Amino acid sequence: MGVAGSGKTTVAKLFAEKTGAVFYEGDDFHPPENVAKMRAGIPLTDADRAEWLQTLRGIIVRSLAKGAFAVLTCSALKAKYRDALAVNDSRVKFVHLTGPQSLIEERLKNRRGHFMPPALLASQLEILEPPADALVFSCAQPPEKIVGDLIQILGSAGSD
């Protein structure tokens, strides 16, 4: 979890690659209306996010039911979003990638082919409710370091 440009996809893909976890990119599940709003520089509302969060919750529920080791990227900016995604199951863990605003802004300016414009970072930072119970990592660290630490903490698909 974290704001756009914090490295969620990079870290999650590397984690999945190194652990055998199933990877889900949360952005792939936004309805077209959400993508259009973001492309236009319009921040999403709670109502806009509701269907998307329900879809992601469904992925989590199905993964847990199958006993699948999975990683899902999602901004999860508000506590109520994380509560919905946690599905009252202690196996669900949140990893919050955070970092200096200037670094995240620079990443967003250099990112190509993504619908989230740098101008929306301010609105994400404004609504971000930092989690009290997440594993927190600075996105200024190399992704390999973050993933190595996560593997030590969370294990991998082949571990008990």
Secondary-structure-based class equals: mainly alpha
| Uncertain residue segments | none
What is the approximate shape? globular
The largest sheet has its strands arranged as 1-2
Q: CATH fold name, please?
A: Rossmann fold
Rounded Rg: 15 Å
Describe the sheet with the most strands. Answer: 2 strands, parallel
In total, the number of strands is 4
Q: How large is the share of residues in beta strands?
A: 5-15%
User: What is the average per-residue confidence, as pLDDT, rounded to a whole number?
Assistant: 91
Number of helices: 7
- Classified by CATH, the class is Alpha Beta
Q: Report the end-to-end length measured between terminal Cα atoms.
A: 25 Å
CATH architectural type: 3-Layer(aba) Sandwich
Number of domains: 1
Helical content band: 40-55%
Name the CATH superfamily assignment: P-loop containing nucleotide triphosphate hydrolases
Secondary-structure element order, N to C: HEHHEHEHHEH
Topology:
Elements: H1 8-19, E1 22-25, H2 32-39, H3 46-66, E2 70-73, H4 79-86, E3 95-98, H5 101-110, H6 121-127, E4 135-138, H7 143-154
Parallel strand pairs: 1-2, 3-4
Helix pairs in contact: 1-7, 3-4
